[in-house]
Design brief:
The chain is α/β, with parallel strands linked by helices. The chain has helices at about 15-25, 40-50, 60-75, 100-125, 150-170, 195-200, 200-215, 225-235, 235-245; strands at about 5-10, 30-35, 50-55, 80-85, 130-135, 175-180, 220. It is globular. This is Oxidoreductase.
Length: about 250
């Protein structure tokens, strides 16, 4: 799919991978709209990028419905949705972990939000000559990281959903489903995970996303994720142990 002269919505576009991807897509001749819940951050990012923005809480059904109505009214040629917004908690499972509450927040943002937004935008995307949905998951989507246990659960769920959606929509639509699985990226959200010391720049992820879509690679690996996935397919137990070495 040639990613130029398209109208693109990027969730979580105020920083990190979303911001870097928006910047690259603009340079490639696309119209970009960014969305998120932090109005101040979005306004700053939109001014820097020279794009439109829509403030909205993607975990709230009414807010998402309003977002979709605005997109249908003002951006009727929207053809690419990039589900990038995410949240994660660094902790270990145990009797005092409060895992249910952490998982609830992670699933609301990382799974239910993109599933809801995607479903509501399908009628608009189906009207376009070609369209794409891009789900940003993670290398933890195919094997868990013990210090991101329920984040891993949520990203695994979105991975499974992406596969099912791809197969379903391939039967009678022109909508392509891409999944992006990055390794550690240096963003504000990954500081507690060692992102500043060991993470790749978000611009690297943005370039891989752009290249992968243009090359119709439906599973796009960023950084070490490709080798990690190959290792997992070869020997799952050894790959998971290596991935979590020193963490448990």
């Amino acid at each position: 799919m040639e990613l130029t002269k398209k109208t693109v919505l990027v969730t979580g576009g105020g920083s990190g991978i979303g911001y870097a991807t928006a910047m690259l897509l603009i340079k490639k001749g696309n119209q970009v709209i960014i969305t998120g819940r932090n109005a101040e951050k979005l306004d700053k990012a939109a001014k820097e990028l020279g794009v439109d923005y829509i403030v909205g809480d993607l975990t709230d059904a009414d807010s998402v419905a309003s977002l979709v109505k605005k997109l249908e009214a003002d951006y009727s040629d929207l053809s690419v949705l990039i589900n990038n917004a995410g949240v994660g908690f660094v902790y270990k499972l145990g009797e005092s972990a409060n895992a249910v509450e952490k998982a609830r927040q992670e699933f609301e943002t990382n799974y239910f939000a993109p599933v809801r937004l995607t479903e509501l935008l399908l009628p608009l995307l189906k009207k376009q000559p070609e369209a794409a949905i891009v789900n940003i998951t993670s290398n933890v989507a195919f094997h868990p990281l013990v210090v991101l246990p329920t984040y891993s659960d949520a990203k695994t769920a979105l991975h499974s959903h992406s596969v099912a959606l791809r197969l379903t929509l391939s039967a009678d639509t022109n909508i392509k489903i891409f999944e992006v699985m990055p390794s550690l990226i240096n963003t504000d959200a990954t500081k507690d995970m060692g992102g500043e010391q060991h993470g790749l720049p978000p611009e690297v992820a943005a370039q891989e996303i752009y290249n992968g879509i243009n090359e119709d690679r439906y599973e796009i690996f960023v950084g070490e994720a490709g080798q990690q996935y190959a290792d997992y397919l070869t020997d799952p137990n050894a790959a998971v142990a290596k991935f979590n070495q020193g963490l448990y």
